[in-house]
Amino acid sequence: MITKEYLQDRFEYRNGNFYRKFDSKSKPKKGDVVGSKNKGGYIETRLFNKQYKLHKLIWLYFYGYLPKYIDHINGVTYDNRIENLREANHSENMMNTKMRITNKTGIKGVNWHKASNKWTVQLMVNQKKKYFGIYDDIELAELVAIEARNKYHGEFARHN
Predict the structure, then answer these.
(1) Fewer C-beta neighbours within 10 Å, C or N terminus of the chain?
(2) According to the 3-state scheme, what is the secondary structure of 116-131?
(3) What is the per-residue pLDDT across 129-139, written as a single tens digit (0 to 9) for each?
């Protein structure tokens, strides 16, 4: 089992990265950066024949435990600076996601309603879709979406 002490013994943390403290039997050398970027943009490394995301190891390195979810505050999955990481539950982690690539309005939570030819605002609140109205003006719909995210998502609100 990987512990805080194990990580602190073998790695040095600097600005969101781990650096090896000593040479290993294989290729990695003292001072080498630990991990590489995966397809999802997370930095991963292998320890004891198991893949670990670096942000989870960094959290363990500092706090001594592993929460189920760790959120990257700025949404950049490879930015593992400890000040950019925070514990979250699944719902909070999802609140801080980027706008979906399928979004056609360019505004998170705002969609075109064909039947009424107006803009609708919807967000996930407590794992359920919540409706915030229908609007003629996209700018007003955007303001409503921003206010709703601020109110219901709080510090996890992400507007883009």
Answers:
(1) N
(2) CCEEEEEEEECCEEEE
(3) 999 999 999 99
Residues facing 70 on adjacent strands: 87
Neighbours of 9 (CB within 10 A): 10
- Separation CA 68–CA 144 (nearest Å): 32
Encoding tokens for residue 152?
């219901």
Contacts of 135 (CB under 8 A, 6+ apart): 118, 119, 120, 121, 141, 144
Look at residue 12 in the predicted model and tell me its pLDDT.
96
Q: Does 44 score more than 90 pLDDT?
A: yes
Torsional sign, CA 158, 73, 52, 44: positive
122-147 average pLDDT score:
95
Report yes or no: 133 and 120 within 8 Å, Cβ to Cβ: yes
Q: Which CATH number fits the domain 101-156, given the four candidates 3.30.70.100, 1.10.10.10, 3.90.1150.10, 3.30.730.10? A: 3.30.730.10
Look up the pTM and report it.
0.85
- CA dist 149 to 50, 115, 132, Å? 37, 25, 11
